[in-house]
Structures are given as C-alpha cells and as structure tokens.
Design a protein that fits this description.
Rossmann fold, single chain, alpha/beta, 45% helix
C-alpha cells in the first residue's frame, strides 16, 4: 500500500486484523540493530513469530514503512540495504505458502523502495490510494475469513 503519511494505512491494517481476529505482527524501521547482522536476525524473528502465530489462527505480518526497512541500495555504503533486501526476499519466498499468513507492506515513499520488491510475484498487488487500499484490505479480509472456514 502506498499513500501520504497519515492517510490511515497502518490503521486500516490494524482494523482488518481486529475484524478477522487475526494476530498482527508489525515490523517497522525500529527493526534495525546496531550490531552487524542484528537487523537481519530481527527480520527473521518477526517472520518466525508470524509463522508460529499461524498455528493458532490467522496472522498478518505488516511491514510498515518498508522503504525504511529495505531502502533502495543505491546509497548503501555498509551493505545493510542489500543484506536486508536479500533476507526479506528469501523470507518472502520461504513463507509464500504458509497457510493463514498474509504479508502486507506500506510506504509513503514508493520511489525509495528497491525495484526488486516491486517486481511481479513479490507482492500480489500494489495499490496507490486509500480507496483502493480499502478495497484490497476488504478482499484480504474475505480471503482470511474463507481460510478460517477451511
């Protein structure tokens, strides 16, 4: 989801999680650690927490401000952006078929997202305004609700 700051992207995801009675794992830019490798470890821990929550019910893994979590690697002097991008892509691929897990990302700066994340197959949809976001979230809600019946 993309949209200007304060338009309700985070609130929308929280509302859907509440309405679906889904566990919400929120990942933000605070995931970055001070030690080498700590950021990647924190990202793996968030995915593991989300996977574990799926065994008890539905789970939404929300990557808030994904542009801060995995920034464009053009100004990457220490390699952190490349390592975080590689780890996120690996985790997305690994958890693609985890039952009852929905991964949603949001940003207010889509131009700062690495182009690798915007390629077809990484995320199912990319929506650019709040009305479309509401529609997407309602479709996600329907999908999660139908999975609950399985």
């Amino acid at each position: 989801m993309t949209g200007p700051p304060g338009c309700g992207k985070t609130s929308l995801v929280k509302l859907v999680a509440k309405q679906c009675d889904a566990f919400l794992v929120k990942v933000g830019d605070s995931i970055h650690g001070s030690r080498p490798g700590e950021s990647e470890q924190n990202l793996r821990a968030a995915f593991l927490q989300a996977s574990a929550a799926c065994s008890e019910g539905l789970c939404i893994l929300f990557l808030d401000d994904i542009d801060a979590i995995c920034p464009r690697s053009r100004d990457d002097s220490d390699g952190l952006a490349r390592r975080m991008l590689a780890e996120l892509l690996r985790l997305l691929e690994k958890h693609e078929y985890v039952a009852r897990l929905a991964v949603i990302a949001a940003t207010s700066k889509p131009s700062d997202i690495d182009p690798c994340l915007r390629r077809v197959g990484r995320f199912a949809k990319e929506v650019e305004n709040l009305i479309k976001c509401v529609y997407l979230v309602l479709c996600t809600y329907k999908y999660i609700y139908l999975n609950l019946l399985i």
